[in-house]
Each structure stands twice: as C-alpha cells, then as structure tokens.
Fold:
Amino acid sequence: MTEKEPITVVDNRKIDPETGEVRTADAEKDAASAPAADGAAAEQADAEVVEVEAEAEAGAPAESESGPAAGSADSDVANQLAERTADLQRLTAEYANYRRRVDRDRKAAVDAAKAAVVTELLGVLDDLDRARAHGDLETGPLKAVADKLADALRKQGLEEFGQEGDAFDPTLHEAVQHEGSGNDPVLGTVMRKGYRLGDRVLRHALVGVTDGVGDEAAKAASNGAEASDEDAAKKD
Structure:
C-alpha cells in the first residue's frame, strides 16, 4: 500500500473571514498550526492503518503454511523423488545394455582376429598333411614341430572335418565329383580337409561323393533277388 503525503493548507489571510477583524501575529500562528496539527494527526492515523495491514499480511502466509500449502509442498517433494528414481533406473538399464554391447563387440573382434591368423596357417597345415602322407613326419624334429603347431591351434578352438565315410553336408563340404545314384551320399575321397573355428567355417572340405553303405547293400540285395528269380525261372 502506497502512503499518501498529507496536504497542508496554510491560511495567510490578514483579515479573519468569520469575524472580519485584523489578525495579529499570534492569531496567524494559531491559524497556521491548526492545519499542521490536523495533518500530523491524519499522518499518524494512516501510519497505524499501514501497520495493521502489514501485520495482517505477515500473518497470512504463516496460517497458509500450516494448511493446504504444506500438503502441496509434500506432494512436490514426492513427485521429484519419483522422477529422480525413474531417471536412476533408466540410467542403470542403459549402462547394463552398454556393457553387454561392449563385451559382445570385444568378443567378436577377438574371434575375427583369431580367425584371420589361423586362416593364414591353413596352408602350412596342408603342407604338413602332405608330408605326413609321404612318411616324412614319422620321426625327426619336423614331426615335433608339426605336433606342437597342431596342438597350439587345437587349443585356440580349431577343428578339422572331412573324413572318408562321413555324411555329405553341403554347408561343410564342396563336392567336385559324384559317383552313384546320389541316394544317401557320403564322402568317398577327401582331397582337402576343411577347418572351422568355433561356429565359424574357415574353409570347406574338398571331397568326392559316393553312395552310402546302405544304398550299396540295398543294391546287392536287389541284385541277389533278381539272380534268384532268374535261376528259378531257368529251373522251371
């Protein structure tokens, strides 16, 4: 509330308008002091009114804090706590996903680097297999070197596949020749071994495919049955 300055009116007239007499010096002082006194009284009254209103305004918040405002403050604190808890849970989940992704990428990078190194050594293994087939690895220092290399690669997870008699698998074997009817195909001749590192196929086996033992037995049985029928017909 803005305080208004009191208006002071000074009567400087030399003749009293009510009596018509000439005012003396004392009368002029009384006439001048009367409005001033009235103004001071009015100013004091206004000050009292302002003080009462200030006390009323100061008491209003105190009453509201103990009422609905306190409940609103508690509600705001609860909402902020829920928001911070949700943010913490989201950050925890994002960090866990980040760690899993980093571990998966690191493992993939290690496996790729290992596969690249082992693939470069497959030619050496082929040379050792040819030397072994010629009997050059039966004794001597070269046999020890070949055994150590094979053991080291085996510990890294390298596996060879492609043995004669194994069932033909087009995802593992590359057939360059085929003998027989094609029913129940198996590996007849292995020209080059295949290798895999874990679930990754580094090189397919180069093989020749032939019919399986089951088909050959069935053919033999069929041929025997036909021969028996022919003998029976001849006897008749």
